[in-house]
Specification:
Elements lengths: L3 H14 L7 E2 L5 H11 L5 H6 L13 H12 L9 H12 L12 H8 L7 H26 L6 E2 L11 H7 L3 H13 L12 H12 L8 H10 L10 H13 L14 E10 L4 E6 L7 E5 L5 E7 L3 E3 L8 H6 L1 E4 L3 E5 L4 E6 L6 E3 L9 E5 L4 H9 L7 E4 L7 E6 L4 H9 L17 E3 L14 E6 L5 E3 L10 E5 L2 E5 L7 E2 L8 E6 L4 E7 L13 E6 L1 E2 L4 E2 L6 E2 L13 E5 L4 E6 L4 E4 L6 H6 L8 E5 L4 E7 L4 E5 L16 H9 L9 H19 L1
Helix pairs in contact: 5-6, 5-7, 5-8, 10-12, 17-18
Length: 708
């Protein structure tokens, strides 16, 4: 009959390091409930603590407490480290102690050793307690051996999440496994997706920023995270804890993020699905809402379905987003209850929230939901009717005078706050420190590196290379965002042109470089881990181009009607009169794979858009991957609809400058217009499009009757 210790080793090996854990993050989480389930499922009569205690050497002090287990580990190593290390039951017992850490029974939530003694029924301050305390050195070595075994196996038995830090060291290993339960891992893959984390954390989002985002993601909503993890999140949101939090959970979140492959953790599904966070976009200058989905890497096309049975064919479009969601119009129930679009390869989800932060999208030019507040930049905030009053009061306290509040179009009861910008650092810091249920929406990201923001840029077209962050007018230098401090005195060492100073600055509030009165020229600012180069000038004073002023209108009481060369000292009028109002032409982006495209007006007019070839000099000098997949087409005066066909289907986009689409008024013989409309007749759900389809059908019916 097998020893209880061996039975527990087999059960733990299968549960946490079995074949289904390959290439997935694995957490050796064992609490009282998990211990009970494992024992029942595997027919183990002895408790985990009893099985481990039977292997301990209590008789004397001539040998280590775990000398039997250490001997088995040496034999296991000598035979090639096949299977999980023999120390698993010991490690699981240490995690069991960590899961019991709480302020109760006369112990604080930070007291691991007290719970470690308690697991084995050993009184504190006893001889056995001292032996257990000394044995933690060997237990720490066992954790390091497990971590090395998992890393060396290359993910065959799972990706290691074993972590610690200098402060905790020995006890940090089991605590790192007790923070996140097995069920938490599945929920965290949803969180990684909805917070737009890249697979393998390719953008290197630091662990403290992940903790901040997780805290915001779970604020006000039950995401079904374990009580222990929620306790850590609540601690992270406490006053003065911005950018801090338990270093073990910070390290663990970062490790899980680097191991995440961009898919959902769905043990019941054979095929792993990519996961994305659905985003909300406010377009047409705040008059319309749309759903927006970033394109998943390696998934150019996909079909997803919503709960009511509707399906949507997605295709990668300009700005690295999917087109195909135009007919899914955001509604109040969707914002309140969430949206989940599922396909065989892709899952896109909007997690319900009462307050939504938006920032201008750099490619699309629309206001799109985002994960963090950027001090110094403009933001919009959407708030449900239940919390709009609280959000308005919070925004009034940050010192911005230009906030405008209005109803959110198409969503009854919701409000939109425009012009949200933190300009008063003192008021902004006070608002953040005061807390509040919705203050997470104003929290900036936690950075590892310095960043320049704002400032009065000049000569944007000039760059001295990719290392130059920008050129600024003297007196309008940019602000410097600092990384979160890790030093005991909460300061950050900043170097400016080789001279270092320690700043006790709030990382949420930018430091104004214009107060330093910098000299003209190039400057280098940052920390030991990151720096940026920028230049400061009083202005660029360049000579006038050759030939300036050589043309004009000769003036002899009245000006001549034609321009000519200035050749004498007579009176001349030089220069030009600029119009009082100048407007740039409106354009739309057309993908290069579009087969045909037309602009349609309300009177039967059709303006075709012809494909433009990539200029030869671009093809010659740049690799194919660098060529933009889109081109701009100028919108003709009076155009209402843009209709185009790709290899997969027809598409329709409204381009009318008016808030309301004008009614169609074609003549009876505008057949080309009618055929263009009917080609995409069922491909658009925009208000007003159905009237154009009906008008086109009437023209075709009239043509058919006349042909008879």
């Amino acid at each position: 009959m097998k020893r209880a210790y061996d039975q527990w080793h087999e059960a733990l090996s299968e549960e946490f390091f079995g074949p289904d854990h390959a290439l997935q993050s694995t957490v050796l989480y064992v609490d009282d409930e998990a211990e009970r389930e494992l024992a029942e499922r595997n027919g183990i009569d002895a408790s985990l603590a009893q099985a481990v205690s039977d292997e301990m050497y209590w008789e004397g002090s001539d040998k280590p407490l775990f000398w039997r287990v250490l001997s088995q580990c040496r034999t296991w190593t000598a035979k090639g480290s096949a299977g999980a290390p023999p120390s698993l039951p010991v490690l699981a017992a240490s995690v069991l102690a960590a899961t019991r850490m709480a302020t109760s029974d006369g112990m604080l939530r930070t007291n691991f050793r007290g719970r470690w003694y308690q697991v084995f029924g050993v009184p504190q301050e006893s001889r056995k307690a001292k032996r257990l305390d000394k044995a933690l050195d060997d237990v720490a070595a066992m954790w390091e051996e497990l971590d090395f075994w998992l890393e060396r196996a290359g993910g065959l038995y799972g990706a290691s999440t074993v972590s610690t830090d200098e402060h905790y060291w020995r006890i940090g290993y089991p605590i790192s496994q007790a923070l996140i339960r097995r069920a938490d891992r599945q929920i965290l893959t949803r969180f990684f997706a909805t917070t737009r984390l890249r697979p393998r954390n390719s953008t290197e989002v630091p662990g403290r920023e992940l903790l901040r985002r997780l805290t915001a993601w779970s604020a006000g909503r039950d995401r079904h995270l374990s009580p222990r993890l929620m306790e850590e999140l609540q601690f992270a949101t406490g006053s003065g804890n911005f950018g801090k939090g338990n270093p073990l959970i910070v390290s663990l979140l970062e490790r899980l993020a680097y191991d995440w492959d961009g898919t959902l953790h769905e043990p019941d599904r054979k095929q792993r699905r990519r996961a994305l966070g659905l985003r909300l976009a406010v377009t047409d200058r705040g008059r319309r809402l749309e759903w927006l989905a970033d394109a998943a890497e390696g998934v150019e096309e996909a079909t997803v379905r919503i709960h009511d049975g509707r399906s949507f064919a997605l295709r990668t479009d300009y700005g690295h987003v999917y087109s195909g969601l135009e007919t899914l119009h955001p509604s109040e129930p969707q914002l309140r209850l969430g949206v989940r679009l599922e396909g065989d390869d892709l899952v896109i989800e909007w997690v319900p929230q009462e307050v939504v932060l938006l920032r201008m999208h750099s490619d699309l030019g629309d206001w799109v939901s985002t994960e963090y507040f950027e001090p110094g930049e403009q933001h919009w905030i959407l708030a449900s009717s239940a919390v709009a009053g609280q959000v308005g009061s919070m925004l009034n306290s940050i010192g911005t005078q230009t906030i405008r509040e209005a109803p959110l179009p198409g969503i009854p009861g919701w409000r939109i706050f425009k012009g949200v910008r933190a300009v008063d650092s003192t008021a902004f810091t006070r608002a953040l420190d005061s807390g509040g249920e919705h203050v997470h929406v104003l929290q900036p990201q936690v950075r590892q590196h310095t960043k320049l923001i704002g400032g009065l840029r000049i000569a944007r077209e000039y760059r001295a290379g990719s290392s130059v962050a920008g050129h600024y007018l003297r007196g309008g230098e940019p602000d410097l965002l600092l990384p979160a401090a890790h030093s005991p005195d909460a300061t950050v060492e900043v170097a400016l042109d080789g001279r270092t100073s320690k700043l006790r600055a709030d990382p949420r509030v930018p430091f104004p470089l214009n107060c330093l009165r910098l000299e003209e020229g190039q400057h280098d600012v940052g920390t030991s881990s990151s720096s940026q180069v920028f230049t400061v000038y009083d202005g660029f004073h360049e000579g006038l181009p050759e030939g300036t002023g050589s043309l004009g209108y000769k003036c002899d009481r009245t000006a001549a009607s034609r321009v000519s060369s200035v050749e004498s000292e007579d009176a001349w009028i030089r220069g030009a009169a600029a119009p009082a109002r100048t407007e740039l032409p409106r354009t739309v982006i057309v993908r290069r794979e579009v087969l045909e495209a037309f602009f349609l007006d309300s009177y039967g007019g059709v303006v075709p858009v012809h494909a433009q070839q990539t200029p030869p000099w671009v093809v010659k000098r740049l690799p194919e991957a660098a060529v933009n997949r889109g081109l701009e087409a100028e919108v003709p005066e009076g155009a209402v609809w843009f209709v185009y066909r790709t290899p997969s289907r027809w598409w329709v986009r409204v381009v009318s400058v008016n808030a309301a689409v004008p009614a169609p008024a074609p003549s009876g013989d505008d057949y080309r217009w009618a055929y263009a409309v009917l080609s995409a007749g069922d491909k658009c759900g925009e208000v007003g499009w159905s009237a154009y389809v009906q008008a086109a059908e009437a023209i075709i019916r009239s043509h058919d009757r006349s042909a008879e």
